[in-house]
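From the methods appendix. Each design record in this collection lists the tokenized structure first, followed by the designed amino acid sequence. Records were kept in a plain field format so they could be parsed without special tools. The example shown here is representative of the layout used throughout.

RECORD:
FOLD TOKENS (154 positions):
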């Protein structure tokens, strides 16, 4: 089971990728390699190796899963986000020339600032000059090239 998790083909920075990386850490530790070797071989810090080795010993496979993050729980569900993104890719609303943040907010029941944050997060441009589908923003310093997500609508 652990070997299958470690070999799972995954995209960078996804839940599956993180779980596969953690499985590789545990497998390398089980082979008897020391923490420094595993950290170098897998490409993480020694502290990360110790954390997931100890979590696996304590919690088994459940220790490889993501832990809940601190802070307030999300208020907007994935279904509402999908609804907004699908609506933005639909033909223009009746009586309007194009979708705007204001018309999307009215249509989905979200605030304009929330619509703006979600569209920015998924790199969706609105307006007559906007290409259809997600766009890739210019990379900023410290940002690995944007956070575009594939469209979920057909």
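DESIGN:
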């Amino acid at each position: 089971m652990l070997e299958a998790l470690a070999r799972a083909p995954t995209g960078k920075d996804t839940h599956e990728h993180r779980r596969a990386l953690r499985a590789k850490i545990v497998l390398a530790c089980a082979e008897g390699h020391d923490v420094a070797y595993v950290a170098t071989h897998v490409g993480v810090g020694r502290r990360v190796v110790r954390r997931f080795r100890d979590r696996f010993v304590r919690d088994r496979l459940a220790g490889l899963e993501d832990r809940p993050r601190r802070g307030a729980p999300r208020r907007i569900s994935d279904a509402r986000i999908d609804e907004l993104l699908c609506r933005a890719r639909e033909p223009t609303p009746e009586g309007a020339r194009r979708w705007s943040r204001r018309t999307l907010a009215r249509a989905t029941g979200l605030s304009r600032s929330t619509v703006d944050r979600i569209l920015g997060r998924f790199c969706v441009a609105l307006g007559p000059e906007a290409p259809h589908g997600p766009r890739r923003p210019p990379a900023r310093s410290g940002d690995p090239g944007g956070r575009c997500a594939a469209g979920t609508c057909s």
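APPENDIX NOTE: Residues 86 and 153 are 6 Å apart (CA to CA).
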